[in-house]
User: What shape does this take?
Amino acid sequence: MAARHKSVETKFMEDRDAVLRGLRGLDRRTFLKVLAATTGAVMAKSLMPPHSFQLIEVANAAPDKTASAAGMAGKPPFTFAYVSDTHLYQRTLNQRFVRAAVKAVDDVNALDPQPDFVLFGGDLAQLGQREELDLGMQILAELKAPVKMMVGEHDWFYDLGDAWQEMFGPPNYSFDWKGVHVVVLMSVHEKDFWTARKMTPLQRMHTVAGLDNGIQSRFEVGDDERKWLAADLAKVPHTTPLLVFSHSPLYKYYRNWNFWTDDAEQVQAILKPYQHVTVIHGHTHQMLYNQIGNISFYGLLSTAWPWPYAPTGLPPLTIQMNRADPFDQFDGLGDGRINVRADGLADKIYSLWDRNPVTVKADYLVSHGKIARPPAPQFPSY
Amino acid sequence: MKPARPLFFSLLAATAVVASFTLVGAQGPGPLADPKSENQAGFPADLYSWVIPSDNPQTPAKIALGKALFFDDRLSADGKISCDHCHAPAKGFTDQLPTSMGIRAQFGQRNAPTILNALFNVTQFWDGRAPTLEAQIQGPVTNPVEMGMKSTDDAVAKIKAIPEYQKQFQDVFGHDVTFADMERAIAAYERTQLAFDSPFDKFIAGDPSAISDSAKRGWSIFNGKGRCMSCHAWNPTQPLFTDQKFHNIGVSAHNANFVPLARKALDTLSKSGAGEQEIDKLAIGTNMSGLGRFLVTKQPHDIGAFRTMSLRNLLVTQPYFHDGSQVTLWDTIDHYNKGGVQNPYLDGGIVALGLSEAEEDDLVAFLASLTSPEYEQASKEEYDLQFKRSRTDRPQRDTAAANGDKGRGPGLAGPFGDIGPAQNEENPALLGGD
Amino acid sequence: MTRRSIALATAAGCAAIFAAVAYAPRLRAQQEPPLPVHQVPDSKSGGTVVMLCDGKTSVEVKGLKPGEAMPHAQAVEIARQLMAQWQREHPNEKWEMAQQEHQTDQSSQPLPAPPAAPGADATAKATGAKPQSKGTQQGDTYASFTDRDYKVWKNQTDNFVEQGKQFFHDGAALGGTIGVSCDMCHPDASNTHPETYPKYQVQLQRVALLRDMIDWCIENPLKGKALDPNDTRLRALEAYILAQRKGVALDYGKH
Assistant: This one.
C-alpha cells in the first residue's frame, strides 16, 4: 500500500490523538494514571520529537522507567526480560490466554533486580483485532520496566499493520543500550497471496493464523527493510555487539510451518561482519537455539500454547524440551530473560512454567555444543 | 505370598498375647487397631507384593512388637505422646485436628496423614521427605514439637530399659534393640492397616447397586468435568486415588507470602547445610511449612507443592489439606471449583471447573462411597454434620470464579477481575480466596 | 497416479490398436477393405509426433528421433498431455476405464496395495502390466475388486479424511468454546502419535484409545463437551490423524 507522506508535526499530532483515543479503552484508575503521564510527557517533549508517540513508554513514564540517558549508557553486562506470543483473543471468548499473559507480566514484575527493559516478542493479538491489541496493551502496561514492542504476523495481517503502527509506532527500529546496538525487525512480511484469491482481511488473517495450511507465503524481511538494516548498521562499528530482535527465526528451520525466513541468508550476510551477534526471535513457541557462523539464535517461549518440534530441520544444537502435558494449561510455556555478557554475547534463561528453568549459555552455542550442554529431555516430541 | 486367612488369625492371637504384656494401665487400642485382612474387595494384590520390602518381611511376632511400640507413649520425651496420639485408630488413624499437637501442647503446621494404606505410598509425609515407612518414624520421634526425643539414641535407651521389649527384640530380630529395628517393627504393623472393601470397590467388582445414583454421577464427574482423576488417579492395579506426585493447588497461598518466603527458605537451607532433621523442623515448626516439597528438593517448580493424598475414608480423616484448613468436603471442592488460589507457582492443571451445586453434592456422595466398612457408622455421622453445614456455611465458595471469570473475584483490584495482575505484590492471600 | 495409468493404458491400448490397424491389412488383405489410416502430422522440429486413436489429438515430442524409444517418465507425461488435450476438446465427456475382461491389475491401484510378488518390477507395476490370469484366484469377493471400485472407495476415504482435516482446524465446530483448535498444538497432526494406542494415558489415568484422548482434548484444552463415540466429527478426526501417520510402525503402550 502506498505510504502517504506526512510532515513530522502532522504525524506527531496524529500519534498523540491515537494515544488519547487509546486511553478511552482503559478503566478509570489506569486512565488517570496514563493521562497524567501523557500530559507530562507531551509538555516535556518539544513539538517536533524525533520519534512518534509510543503509548507504552509514555503511559508508564516514571523516573526509573523512561529510557534515560543514564539507563542507556554504560556497558554490558545487563539483563532484559521478555514476554512473547500471547495470542490474545477478546476477553469474552478466551480467558486462558489472558491469564497466561498476566502470569508472565507478574513473573517479570517479581524479578529482583528489575531487568533493564522487557522485549515483547510479537503476536500480541491472535487475529489482529483492535480489541485484542488493546487488551494486550493494557496487560503489558502493567509491566514496571520499559517495554520494547515487536510485531508478529498475527498482529499484522488483518489490516496490514494499521492498528499496530498507530498504537506502537514503526514496526522496525533500532536503539543503543549500554554499548550494544539493538535492532528490532519486522521479519514477517509476506508476498501477496490474498489478492488473487480475493480474500477479505479476515480471511487473510485466518490463513496466516493457520500454521499448516500452506497457502500463505513464507516470511521475509524483504528488500526494503534489508536496505534499511544495512543503512542502520552502516554507522555501527563491527566490534559493537549486536542484538537483533525478530519474530521469524532469520534462518530456515521448517518451511511448512513458516519456521522460516525466506531471505535469511541475505540478512545473515548483512550481519556477518559483526563479531558478536545474537538474534532473539519469537514465533516458534518452543525452547530453540542455533548457531550459524557468527550469529547465535535464541527462540522465545510463548505464553499461549506450545508447539511440538518440527519433523525435520531442527538445529542440531537444540536439545528438545520434554513434550507438554495438555492437562496443565501452562506447561511448555513461560517467559524468561537474556543476560548480555560483558563481551556482548548472551545467555538465555528459559523460565518454563511448572518446570525447572533451563539456562542456555553462549558458550554452548559458540563452542558448537562442546561445553555447557543444557539438560536432556526424557520425552521429546514424536 | 502367605495365604490371607491364616495370617489374619495368627495376628489376632499374637496381638492379644502381646497386648497383655506391654500395655501398662492403658485401655487396649481396640479392634480398629487390629491388623486387617487382605480379603477385601478392591485389595491390590500385585501392588501389595511390590511394596513389602525384602529386608523387612511381615511376621506375626514383628507385627505384634510394632503394634506395641505404636501404642506406647514411652517413646516420647515426656512419656505422654505415642504414635496413636496423632494417628488414632478410631479417628481413621489421624487426630481429626487441623494440625497436630505434640509434646508440651505445641502445635505443628501440618495435618496428620492417615496410616491407612500408607504402605502403598511411594513417599511419606505431605512433602515426601521420607522414602519409606521405616524412614518416616524417625521424624516425629525426634521432632521437638511432636514426640520431642533428643535423638534416636535416647529412644533406643528408653526401650532397651524395658525387659519385655528386650526379650521381644531378641526374639524377633535376634539382637539388642536398635532404632532401625524399632522402625522395622512399627512399619510392619503399619503395613497391616489395609482399608479397601468400600461400597465403591464393590461397585467396581460388579455390584451396580453398591453405590447410590448420586455417587455414580459423582464418579462420572470425577473422571470428566471435575478433572479429579488426573491427579487422584485410580485404577485396579493402584486403587488409591493418588498419582503419588506433588502439586501446588494453592492451599498455602491462603496464608503465606510465597516469593519472598521461597527466597528466605533457600537462604536458610544453604546456610545451615540442612540435613533431614533440619528440614523436618522447618516443615513442621516454622512458617516455611507452606513451601511444601520445595524444602526437600529445592526445585522452583516444587514451591508450595504437596503430595496428592488418597481419597479413601475422608469422612473420618477430616479436616483437609496439608494445613487442615478445610472443614468439610464441600469446602475442598469449592476450593478446586474456583480454580484454587492464585499464586505464582499454582499448578497449571488447576482451573475453574464450573461445577453446579448438584454436581458438588454428587461428588461428595462419591467420596463418601470410598469408606471402608469399619468406619461406616462414624463416617455417616460425619457426613450428616458436614452436609448440614454445607447448606449454610461455605467460606470457599466463589461461584463467579468457578463459572469462568465473568465476574470479579473477591479482594482483587485491577482491570482484569480475578485473573488480573496482583496489584499488591506483597500479599497473594488477597487473591481469590479466604 | 490413476489418471496417469489410465492414460498409459489408453496409450498402450491405442498403440496396440494402431499397430493392429497398421498391420492388419497384411494379414487379411484379401477378405476386408483396408481400414482407415490416421494421418499423423509431420514433426516441426525433427522429432516425433504421437497421435491419439481418435485421429485428431496429437502431441509433439521434441528431440525424439523416429524409431527411438521414450524413457518411461516421458511416455507417461506424453500420455497425460494427450489425455488433457482430448478432455479439453471434449469437456462434457466422461473418461472411464473400460472394464477389464481378465484379472484387474492390482498394481495399478493406489490402495490398498496387496503384497506384490517378491522382486516385482516397479516399472511393470506402473505401466499397468497385467499378471497372468491363470495364476490368480477367481470368483470370490476380494477377487472381484475393480479399478472403479478402488477409485470410488479412495474418493470416499479421502473425503472423510478431508472432513477430519476441516474439523481438526476448527475448534468451534467441535464444540470448543475458547477459540482453540487442534491444529494449534498439533500442526499437521504432529505429536498425536496414534500408533501408540492403546496405552495408559496419564491425563486420563486409564488405558485409552486414540478416540478417548481426542475426546479428552476436546473437553479440556478446547473446553468443549466430549463427543459421542459415534459422532461423525470424532470419527473423522480419528481418520485424519491416522492418515497423517501412514507408514509408522504400530507400537502400542509407548509413552
Observations:
- Residues 8-53 of chain A form one domain.
- Residues 1-5, 38-68 of chain A have pLDDT under 50 and may be disordered.
- The first strand of chain A starts at residue 78 and ends at 83.
- Chain A touches chain B at residues 26-27, 30, 91, 95-96, 98-99, 102-103, 105-107, 109-110, 138-139, 142, 325, 327-331, 353-357 (CB under 8 Å).
